[in-house]
Amino acid sequence: MEKAAKPLISIIIPVYKVEEYLDKCVESVVNQTYENLEIILVDDGSPDKCPRMCDKWFGKDKRIRIIHKKNGGLSDARNAGIEKAKGEYISFVDSDDYLEPNYVEFLYDNLINENADISMGKHYVRYPKKTLNTGSNKKYIVDPHECFEKLLYGEDFDVSAWGKLYKIELFDDIRYPRGRVYEDAATTYKLIDKSKVIVLNSVPIYNYIIRGNSISNNSFSERKFDLIKSTNEMCNYIIKKYPDLEKACKRRIMYAYLSTYTQLAKSKKYDEKHKEELTKYIKEHRKEILKDKRIGLRDRLGLISTYLGFNFYKLCWRFYSTIR
To answer: pLDDT tens-digit profile of 146-167?
Structure first.
């Protein structure tokens, strides 16, 4: 009896000013062990050689489709890909990252074997001179409530759009918010809550690239507050539906404030009012958060360091970054 064909899976790759990384990214998708793919390259009005590079790839592999559009940002590019996707399942890849050869097959097999709606894996963090493995030997098969609890405490689950395989119907009424930074924090929780089963197999199958110039030394942007905005939206939603997760939500909101505080600490220029706003929230809520025995060591030490002021926190973060 002839073996049934595997379903079509759409891989969406937004492309913008990544000419140094694009070929490696696309090559890693083209060479997947799972072959029944629709590879959608979304040129988001990139001003460099990327549009021509996309067109060149189109001529190399019949599975590749190209969308050329005006620049609208990462969310807009992902949404454009979703609109054109024909697969039964969908996955996102950032165009400066690349995949392990079995990325799609691994996520698909886990999703099918566990009858899940979303399949997740872990990743390598590739620094210029060092690589971190975020994986472990853990496997979770969870419902939305348990997924949220672990996500809110930063326990293996995350809100990144990439590193996941989704049933396409989850996106029937969900899109990424156009123009917002940290757009996945504003979206992934909605996809999780539409699911019945989520599987996470903690094997690194995605390569997340930290560019040499990724750590900003420039001005702090107002848009960095988008993480707090998205996190508050997520937590308000979760508390309303799962009130027992309120403590976990408070931890996640503090994480968003500390992360934004860190962005401020890494910047040469910032508005004092931004520092005051972040500092005020942290001071008012850190004591309560520190009582939660479930928060991680990094967050605990970060919160404790804020008692000695912004400059001390900045020093601690630089020390932590160097060690890491």
So the answer is: 999 999 999 999 999 999 999 9
122, 134 in Cβ contact below 8 A? yes
| Crossing angle for the helix pair 246-265 and 226-241, to the nearest 10 degrees | 180
Beta strand residue intervals within 82-130, DSSP E: 89-92, 98-99, 118-126
Looking at the chain, which residues constitute the CATH 3.90.550.10 domain(s)? Answer: 9-209
Q: Is the pLDDT of residue 22 over 70?
A: yes
- Are 268 and 254 in contact by the 8 Å Cβ rule? The answer is no
Nearest 5°: phi and psi at 322? -65, -45
Please say whether the beta carbons of 166 and 199 come within 8 A: no
Q: How far apart are CA 15 and CA 68, in angstroms?
A: 10
Name the residue type at position 215. I
Tokens of 130: 């060092």
Note the Cα 143 to chain centre separation in Å: 20
CA distance 103 to 203: 10
H or E segment at 208? strand 198-209
Separation CA 265–CA 259 (nearest Å): 10
Domain 9-209 has CATH 3.90.550.10: yes
> What residues does 40 pair with on adjacent strands?
12, 65
Q: Which SS3 state, helix, strand or coil, does residue 251 take?
A: helix
Q: Looking at 61-101, which runs of residues are DSSP E strands?
A: 64-69, 89-92, 98-99
- What confidence score (pLDDT) does residue 217 get? 43
**Residue 315 CA, distance from chain mean position:** 27
Of 212, 216, 209, whose CA–CA distance to 96 is shortest?
209
Phi, psi of 41 (to 5 degrees): -95, 120
